[in-house]
Amino acid sequence: MKNKMKFLSVIMVLMLVLLPTQSVAAKGPGDGPVIFGGTYTLESGDSLDDSVVVFGGVVMIEVDSEVKGDVVVVGGSLTVNGQVNGDVVLIGGATLLGEESLIKGTLSVIGATLNREEGSQVNGEIIHTAPGILSDETRIPEIPGIPFFDQSPLVVHRNPLWAVAGVIGRSVAMGLLAMLVALLLAEPMRRVGEAAASQPAIAGGLGFLTIALAPFVVVVLMITILLIPVGLLAILVLMVALLYGWIALGLEVGERFTKMINQEWPLPLSAAFGTWLLTVIAASIALIPCIGWLVPFVIGTLALGGVIMSRFGSQSVLPPVAEVVDPTPLPPVDGE
């Protein structure tokens, strides 16, 4: 019972830390906001040069505001009273186009409700499927490329100080979170790290397949409006698993570092240092154009694979250590 309570406590902490952190980490010059379970409002008179992505939240585009990129909302609500120069995609939920709204690109509403006031304008194609209904002629649109999710996730920052500040902030936050998780789930974390480190090929393969198939599964769930909560839960579980696996790999890095320097650190300190070091290296390499995304992606697949192999650290993938039996015969007993 104690282990279950510890696990639930860690999940709640991960949710509280992860949800606000992801949206902030995705913001920055030359980088559109990505928000999980929150609200994004573009105030009247403001302009957004990039795209906005919201999972399970609310997007408000007010009058006289302008989004120069795309707007993607999964499992939430969207209200447009301003102008969107790119495409608009809503998967599950509801959207309202006000009388002063203008969408210059394609409007795609999949498994959601669409309400348009008189005077609203859509210059591009309108693709609208009724909630939970797909006909043979239904064409699911391709979600527009978002800087945070592009296959080549290169983000060009106008000010390099933002990039440095982002790396420092993320690494410190991850180190503190790793210390907290290590205090509650030390052994499960160690099992996840051992699974990924001992069998990297299997862990990487499982992680890659999960990341590749997860978007399709989530989209299928979102199309059926009754399964939207399940889709949102799947997204949340995937994010928690990635974060948990990353921290577990950080613990593995920290423990190997302490062995290398012949020192013994408390486990939370090893987890904090290893996670900090792993995050700094991955985030710094991610700034390299074209190929910088590869290292964080590989680490992410290993982390996710380790979580899957060990079932969130509930079981070990390593064979038990055989007990060494002393071959020395026992002395004879008196009277024998």
Gyration radius, in Å: 24 Å
Helix content: 40-55%
Query: Helix/strand-derived class?
Result: alpha/beta
Beta-strand residue fraction: 15-25%
Counted beta strands: 13
The description of the largest β-sheet is: 8 strands, parallel
The residue-averaged pLDDT reads 76
- Total domain units: 2
> Tell me, what's the shape?
elongated
Q: Helical region count?
A: 7
The secondary-structure element order is HEEEEEEEEEEEEEHHHHHH
Query: What is the straight-line distance between the termini?
Result: 51 Å
Contiguous low-pLDDT stretches (5 residues minimum) are 4-30, 131-141, 143-158
Task: Report what the structure shows.
This protein is of the alpha/beta class and 336 residues long. The chain has two domains: 32-146, no CATH class; 160-309, no CATH class. The chain is 46% helix and 17% strand. The protein has helices spanning 2-25, 160-184, 186-198, 200-223, 228-260, 267-285, 294-309; strands at 34-36, 39-42, 47-48, 52-55, 58-61, 66-67, 71-80, 83-84, 88-97, 102-103, 107-116, 121-122, 126-128. Strands 1, 2, 4, 5, 7, 9, 11 and 13 form an eight-stranded parallel sheet that branches. A five-stranded parallel sheet has the order 3-6-8-10-12, with no helix packed on it. It is elongated and about 100 Å long. It starts with a helix and ends in a 27-residue tail after the last helix. The chain crosses the membrane at residues 161-185, 206-228, 234-253, 265-285, 291-309. This is Polymer-forming cytoskeletal protein. Keywords: Membrane, Signal, Transmembrane, Transmembrane helix.
